[in-house]
Amino acid sequence: MENLEKKAQNVLVQNWKDGFSIPCAKLYPFQWKWDSGFIAIGFAHFDMDKAEKEIETLLNAQWSNGFIPHIVFHTESDTYFPGPDFHRADLHPNASKEYKSTGMTQPPVTGFVLEEMYKISKDKKRSLAFIESVIDKVYDNHSYFYRERDPKNEGLVYIYHNWESGTDNSPLWDDIWATMNPPVYTFERRDIKHVDPAERPTQREYDHYLHIIDIAKKHNYNDAKIAELSPFLVQDPLFNSMLIKSNESLINLYKLIDSSSEKIKQLEAWQEKSIANFNAKLFDEELGAYIHYDLRNEVPLKHLSSSSFAPIYANIPDKERTAILVKNMLEVFGKEEHYLCASFDPRSNRFNPKKYWRGPVWINLNWILIKGLQQYGYHDVAERIKKDSLEIVEKNGFYEYFNPIKKVHLEENAGYGGNDFSWTAALTIDLLND
Ligand code: DGY
C-alpha cells in the first residue's frame, strides 16, 4: 500500500501545471472546479503549498457576482472541445476579465475541502491563516447560489446543465433529453480521440449539451433568463448535498476564525431551510432514496443513482432514513458480484457498466459515501466501500472510472476513461491515510 501511495503522489505531481492541476492529460487539459477540490485533499497529505495554491488559483477565476466556473482555461490547448471560444463566458458582465472560463459551474465542494485540508494539516496555525485568506470567496459563492439559483426560495438550488451536475451523462438526463429536440451540430469531438467512444457520451448527447449552452449564451448567461428558459433545470441531490456539506464546514471554520461573524447566522439560516426542504421534496418513499427533481417540467426523476445516497455525507437524513438508504444501497448496488458503488441502478435497462456516468464506479462518489457512512456509525459498510475502491485502483491503475462487475476485473483491464486521473489518485491517498 505504501507503493500505491507513492504512485498516487506521482500522478498528482505529473498533473500539476505550475499553479493548478489538470484532471488528466489530453482529455481534460485545464482546471476543473470540483476536481480541483478533491485534488487539494490529496496534495494536503504531502505538499500543502500545492494544495493551497490549487484552491487559490481556482478562486482567482471567481466572477464579481460570486460565481465560480466549472472550467478555467488557464492555457491554450487543442485537445479539448468545447473550448473558450464556444463557451464565451465573457458575454456575462460579471465574468472574470483575467481568466477565460465556461459560463456554468460544478458541485460546490470547496467549503468542505477547506475543512478537510485543515483536519489533515500538521500546522493548524498556518492552515487557519490560509483559510482566513480565502473563506469569504467561498461564502460569496454560496451566496450567489442562494440568490440566483433558487427561484422558488426553497433553499434548493438548480443546475441548468448536465455538466454542472458533475455526473455528466447519467441516464437520469435521458428523461430530460426526451423533452428536447436540439439541432444536429457539426463539430469535431476531441474526447473520443483519447478514449474509446464506447466509454464516452454519444454524438446526439453532445447536441443536447451544446444546445443548452447556446440558449444560455443567447441571454449572456443571465441567471434569471436561464431560470426562465433553459430546457434543463434540475434540483440535484448530489449538487445540493455538496452545498449543504460546505455550508456546515464554513460554519465550523468561521467559528475557528471569528465566532461572532454575521456570516455564521446566514449560513445557519440557509442550512435550516435547505435541509428541511431537501427532506420534504427530494426523498422518494417508494424508492427509499433521494431523487432529482426536474424543475422545468415539474416532475421528480425517479431513478436510483450513487447521487441518491450522497445526502448522508451532508448530514441530511435522520437516523431512521439513513437506515433505509443503507439497506437499499446494499440490496441494489451491493450484490456479491458487484463492487460498490455503481453510479446508476444496475437493474435498470439504462445501466451500462462501461460508459462514463451510466454505471461505472467513481472514486469521488465512493469517498463521499465512505465519509458519510462513517459519520452515522456504519463503519462496516464504509470499510467495504473503501476496500472495493482501493482494490479496483490497485488492480487497474488510477483510472477515471471502473467497471462495477467484479468478474470483468479478472478477465481484462476494467478501468476506463482517462488514466492517471488526478482525483482518483488524490482520494486514494486520503483513503490510505483514513
Ligand atoms: C467533459 O468534457 O466530459 C467534461 O467532464 C465536462 O465537464
SSE blueprint:
Blueprint: H1 2-15, E1 31-32, H2 33-44, H3 48-60, E2 71-73, H4 84-87, E3 100-101, H5 110-120, H6 124-148, E4 158-159, H7 162-165, H8 174-177, H9 191-194, H10 203-218, H11 223-229, E5 234-235, H12 237-257, H13 262-281, E6 283-284, E7 289-290, E8 292-294, E9 299-301, H14 319-333, H15 363-375, H16 379-396, E10 401-402, H17 406-411, E11 415-416, H18 422-432
Helix pairs in contact: 1-18, 2-3, 2-5, 2-18, 5-6, 5-12, 6-12, 12-13, 15-16, 16-18
The structure holds (2R)-2,3-dihydroxypropanoic acid.
Residues 70, 163, 168, 191 line the site of (2R)-2,3-dihydroxypropanoic acid.
Give a verbal description of the structure:
The structure is a single chain. This protein is mainly α. It has a domain at 77-317: Alpha/alpha barrel (Glycosyltransferase). Helices cover 50% and strands 6% of the residues. It is built from 18 helices and 11 strands. The strands form 4 sheets. A 4-stranded antiparallel beta sheet has the order 4-5-8-9. Helix 5 runs antiparallel to helix 6 (124-148) and helix 15 packs antiparallel against helix 16 (379-396). It is globular. It starts with a helix and ends with a helix. The model has no long low-confidence stretch (mean pLDDT 97). It binds (2R)-2,3-dihydroxypropanoic acid. (2R)-2,3-dihydroxypropanoic acid (DGY) is lined by residues 70, 163, 168, 191.
